[in-house]
Specification:
The protein has about 425 residues and is α/β, with parallel strands linked by helices. It has helices at about 10-35, 35-45, 65-70, 105-120, 140-150, 165-175, 180-195, 225-230, 345-350, 385-400, 410-415, and strands spanning about 85-90, 100, 125-130, 155, 175-180, 205-210, 235-245, 250, 260, 265-270, 285-290, 300-310, 320-325, 330, 335, 340, 360-365, 370-380, 405, 425-430. The protein folds into two domains: about 1-325, ANL, N-terminal domain (Rossmann fold), CATH 3.40.50; about 335-430, GMP Synthetase, Chain A, domain 3 (2-Layer Sandwich). The strands form four sheets. Strands 3, 4, 5, 6, 7, 8, 9, 10, 11, 12, 13 and 14 form a twelve-stranded mixed β-sheet that branches. Strand 6, helix 8 (about 225-230) and strand 7 form a beta-alpha-beta unit.
């Protein structure tokens, strides 16, 4: 696998030439080793010799999550004797899919995450505190550990939760950066305020955040991001976006103008519902082709994530294209009373209502066969006036008001983190 961290700074034509050459290698590798893609090429009479550039990919069918679920092991390109690590997807939109990584894939994963940390300004002088799990078949936790080792910085594996242990570690080990789900930083601040800890007196200066949006596609901070910065101004927040299927991450630089696409590791197309390319600046489904993956490479895989692509040069000096924060997931789109909604905008509204302690958004099919939206809220305030206040806010922001149901804060917490889950759940699709 040819890797080039400096490719970000090359001119667009050099980046394109590099990717086209790697695409050709990937196609030949799939034709030789992948039962699924070998069958696809044969059934669709695709001559891979005619696919010479990224633009030619429009002649190749897309790969879907349903393909992965139905033909999981047909995507394996090496015998199991060469597979070193087994992980699964989170199963947010269906049954989890098993991915197997070779030794080279683990090295690629380490390189990818080290590049991500460098993008966020980390160096070997940092001490990285991992506030995420490394177990439960979770690829990302392993990637963070391997990436920090590749970069050469110190690593302290605390895992998720337990603010007391996190703070003890920050002051004991002198951590300077962390990998974290951003809403947990709010819990860190709340614990600090209750226990006389000055967040800004710690050496923790950089948080690389996953799983929740810090910025809207226009670059404006989400409510969650604003709340963190108001209460912990000495920490800089960086967003990173990744998935098990991609085995690659897209991380913000210091300009915070979208996650840079690591163009030596992945090809990204932005497609509409009919699999046609969408222009820059318009929302589309992130569709990826992995480069340099041995165990389970993917070709034109539709991730289900809706983003906006920006190809203008970044002020940081890099020319690689960037992706906005995730607007929503295609499978989670809600059509409610004539309005199209995605869960992140609902989360942003709820995060901005002071008396809402926690919540779960549920969507189901009503007796009319249309989407119905219900929000379960944990709050000490359960008055009719509060319900009206919540609904008024929703009407002003998104023109429609959901049903409101109150539950105890403890009950909502249990719903958010079921026993088998490795991610906090705020959205439940019952359709």
């Amino acid at each position: 696998m040819i890797r080039n961290r400096e490719l970000h700074y090359k001119n667009p034509s050099e980046i394109s030439d590099f990717q086209n050459a790697r695409l050709s290698e990937t196609l030949h590798y799939l034709a030789m080793n992948s039962p699924f893609y070998r069958r696809m090429f044969h059934e669709n009479r695709i001559d891979i010799g005619n696919i010479r550039s990224i633009g030619d990919l429009v002649n190749v069918p897309v790969t879907t999550k349903q393909d992965l679920q139905q033909y999981n092991e047909d995507f394996f390109c090496v015998p199991k004797s060469e597979m070193i690590d087994f992980v699964t997807t989170s199963g947010t939109l269906g049954d989890p899919v098993t991915f197997a990584l070779t030794e080279n894939d683990l090295q690629r994963l380490a390189y990818n995450e080290a590049s991500s940390f460098i993008m966020a300004g980390c160096t070997k002088e940092d001490i990285m505190q991992l506030m995420t799990t490394i177990d439960r078949r979770f690829m990302a936790g392993l990637a963070y550990f391997l990436g920090a080792r590749e970069l050469g910085c110190g690593v302290v594996r605390v895992g998720n939760g337990i603010p007391e242990l996190q703070w003890d570690t920050i002051f004991r080990v002198k951590s300077t950066a962390c990998m974290v789900v951003p809403s947990f930083l709010i819990k860190m601040v709340e614990f600090a305020e209750k226990n006389g800890i000055d967040c800004n007196a710690s050496g923790l200066r950089r948080a690389i955040c996953i799983g929740e949006a810090l910025r809207k596609p226009d670059g404006e901070m989400t409510t969650l991001g604003q709340k963190i910065m108001e209460r912990w101004p000495n920490i800089e927040l960086y967003s990173t976006y990744a998935s098990t299927e991609m085995q690659t991450s897209f991380t913000e630089c210091s300009e915070h103008a979208g996650g840079h696409i690591p163009c030596d590791l992945i090809i990204v197309e932005m497609l509409d519902e009919n699999n046609n390319p969408v222009p820059d600046g318009e929302s589309g489904e992130v569709t990826i082709t992995t480069l340099g993956v041995e165990g389970m490479p993917l070709l034109r895989f539709k991730t289900g994530d809706i983003c906006i692509r920006y190809s203008t040069p970044c002020k940081c000096g890099r020319n690689s294209a960037r992706l906005s924060s995730v607007i929503g997931r295609k499978g989670q789109m809600i059509k409610f009373k004539g309005t199209t909604l995605y869960p992140p905008i609902l989360f942003d509204i709820l995060d901005n209502i002071p008396d809402v302690t926690n919540y779960v958004v549920e969507v189901y099919t009503n007796s009319l066969g249309t989407d119905q939206l219900q929000i379960k809220i944990g709050s000490v305030n359960r008055s009719d006036e509060f319900v009206k206040h919540i609904k008024d806010i929703f009407r002003s922001k998104v023109r429609v008001a959901p049903d409101i149901v109150f539950e105890s804060v403890e009950e909502i917490s249990k719903i958010q983190m079921p026993a088998m889950s490795r991610k906090s759940i705020k959205f439940i699709d019952l359709r």
